[in-house]
Amino acid sequence: MVAIAAHNIQMSFMSGTTETKVLKGIDLAIPSGQIRLMMGPSGSGKTTLLSILAGILTPSAGQVELLGQEITQLSRKQLTVFRRDHIGFIFQSFNLFPALTALENIELALQLKGKKGPGNQEIAFDLLKQVGLGDRVNNLPADLSGGQKQRVAIARALAGEPELIMADEPTAALDSSTGRDVIELMQYLAKNKGCTVLIITHDPRITDAADEITYLEDGLLASESSLVTGLH
Amino acid sequence: MVSLARKNLLKDLPRFLVAQAGIMFAVSLVTIQTGILKGFTRSTTLLIDSSEADIWVASENIVNFELTEPFPYVQVRQAEEVEGVARAEALTIGSGRWYSDGKLTTLRVFGFDPNGDLFRPGDVSDNSMQALNAPYSALIDRTNMRSFRIDGVGDTARIRQLPVMVVGLTRDTQSLVSSKFVFTSLVNANAYISSGFSAGLTCQLGEGDITCINAFQREPDAANADVADPEPLKADAPVTYVLVKAKPGENLQRLKRRLESELSGTKAFTKNELITSTQAYWQNRTGIGFILGLGAIVGVIVGMVVVAQILYTSVSENLREFGTLKAMGASDWDIYSVILEQSLWMALLGYVPGLLLCWGVGTWTAATQGIVVLITPLSAVGVLGITVVMCVGSAVFAIQKVTRVDPGIVFKA
Ligand SMILES: Nc1ncnc2c1ncn2[C@@H]1O[C@H](COP(=O)(O)OP(=O)(O)O)[C@@H](O)[C@H]1O
Ligand SMILES: [Mg+2]
Question: How far apart are CA B247 and CA B270, in angstroms?
Fold first, then answer.
């Protein structure tokens, strides 16, 4: 089954009177349960594509299908609900809520997903244990290292058990060995929970965590995707 | 439940406290202005309010509670005869000057029957009331002690040329728009009011001529020594109101009309009618409602500016957080409720100390200035409502800002 599918995605931005075409017709299919890396030079349109695939941006043309549902037709409100129910996000700058402890950051995500009650605290604690932060639950983000922050973010993305995880440069703010640990953790948890994962990255050292790699260049997929797992 | 609103609010504690101080003062401004208006308005009718009379009969030319024409005392006796009247008592109001330690204060003297039931000058003991039966005795309000230069019960002074001894103290009587009140018996009041301009001259009506004895030589403070007791009330002595207690079950509107037709040249009011018309008179006459209302509006505006500024800054600083919430699937309402919750916390945490401050200030001004900042449960709830509207209204600016956040912000490094 295909979890993430894109057909002829095009995206243009107007800056002043000039129109810049950032995505020039992207076709993509990511099977369910796969970990897909998307690589490409800076400015090639990776973040724009991720935003479109996640239903945050609406493409100028083309369709996106997530989990068999065409999302390009959905209203803004329906898209919000879809993201809430099916997608977990991981960001380059972590985007944790600085006033909340690690535990509260995850509880808030659970609350947002409509989960109420005292059970949330246990679920959040359990998720933090899974990312190896069982002893850091009451720390504020400011008191955590970069790698620890991104682990909290991973736990938060997994809250509510989404089918899809989308990560934009999750290791860019981390040193390479920490980055590796974080990606390995993502890989382990995603496989464990059967999530489909799309990771945008610059980092060539994490390619072996991927099932498949897509290269984006100048708004187009550069070549046929290579099956990394097949090469090993 | 994790409250992002509360946590974000307390994240920068000093800034939060400054904001709360701003809201607290805005709340205080509104409360004090409306409280003074209420206290002022109520002060004009304290005496009517505390009386036991059902109906007040005045001259038909009445302008306000204290500005009206007198009518002869005999009409009080006539009122007693009117059907449905259980009891009628006289109240006379006049003005005068109070001399104490060589200083002068204008006063308003109220003469009533200390043995009667219908007029009660505030919170005063029965002993003090009985003491008014003595010649040249009077009660004053505690808040006027300084103005009258009186240290306590037993002190003496002069009203016009006549002596006066303070035999008791009362409270909650003084109107803020009037001269200082003095309460005494009808007989004493009549003497004080009619002692008139004949200061220093004693005139006697002889046969066809008037004999006046010039008394200028007399020492003013020696006046107390050789003054004759006040004369009993004559039938034509001027009185200002007839206070009427109706028989049980009597229709007050009908009784009013009967009284007006039996007592020529009069106009009758129920207690509430006189209160309402007197308060309305002073509010319109002085424009105080407008002035204090303006102060209250300034308070609300200051509060709104403070809250709007804080919320807007808070939202601007946390735009990425709101973007993240949106990406994670927070509905617009989820996001607005974070801002609204912040504004409600600010409202509540500014309101409570603000009200306490006003309560303290009000207690102080009532004790020392005679100015009552009246905070009723209703006005307290009203100010809470205004505070909430003020804070929530300010949240609109912050919400505007959030709705325009670029969703792509979450991916920026
Ligand atoms: N909101 C926007 N308005 C105008 N131009 C944009 C906007 N977002 C991205 N772009 C442009 O699109 C191009 C691709 O950006 P992006 O998707 O962020 O690339 P990448 O993530 O691969 O570095 C860049 O040239 C960028 O300037
Ligand atoms: Mg990017």
Answer: 14
Does ligand 1 come within 6 angstroms of the Cβ of A136? Answer: no
How many beta carbons lie within 10 A of that of residue B356, not counting itself?
13
Same domain for B246 and B143: yes
Summarize pLDDT for B309-353 with one digit per residue, the tens.
888 888 888 899 999 999 999 999 999 999 999 999 999 999 999
Contacts of A169 in chain B (CB under 8 A): 413
Give percent of chain A above pLDDT 90: 82
Q: Tell me the C-alpha distance between A57 and A108, whole Å.
A: 24
Of all residues in chain B, the one with the smallest CA distance to A55 is B327
Q: pLDDT higher for A121 or B223?
A: A121
Question: For residue B225, what are the domain limits?
Answer: 61-264
Residues B377-405: tens digit of each pLDDT: 998 999 999 999 988 888 888 898 888 88
| B269 backbone dihedrals φ, ψ, rounded to 5° | -130, 145
Residue A7 is assigned to a structural domain of this protein: no
Task: State the pLDDT at residue B12.
Answer: 86
Asked whether residue A227 is assigned to any structural domain, the reply reads yes
Q: Is residue B23 domain-shared with residue B104, that is, in the same domain? A: no
Distance from CA of B20 to the nearest CA of A (A): 19
The predicted complex's ipTM stands at 0.92
- CB pairs A-B closer than 8 Å: 79
**CA of A55 vs chain B CAs: smallest distance (Å):** 9
Number of domains forming the structure of chain B: 2
Residue A8 lies in a domain: no
CB-CB neighbours of B14 under 10 Å: 7
pLDDT at site B284: 83
Contact A51 B407 (CB under 8 A): yes
Number of domains, chain A: 1
Would you say residue B269 lies in a domain?
A: no
pLDDT per residue as tens digits for the range B346-381: 999 999 999 999 999 989 988 777 777 888 899 899
Q: Is the CB of B407 under 6 A from ligand 1?
A: no
For ligand 1, atom 10, the nearest C-alpha belongs to: A13
Q: How close does chain A come to B346, measured CA to CA in Å? A: 17
CB contact under 8 A, A112 and B334: yes
Statement to judge: residues B213 and B316 lie in one domain? no
3-state secondary structure of B149: coil
List of residues 6+ apart from A71 with CB closer than 8 A: A55, A64, A65, A79, A82
CATH code, domain with A223: 3.40.50.300
> Range of A170's domain?
33-55+75-231
Is residue B187 domain-shared with residue B77, that is, in the same domain? Answer: yes
A163 touches chain B (CB under 8 A): no
Residue A44 CA to ligand 1 centre (angstroms):
8
Amino acid making up residue B311:
L
Which of A95, A121, A140, A200 to mutate to test binding with chain B, by most B CBs within 10 Å of its CB?
A95
- Tell me the residue type at B342: Q
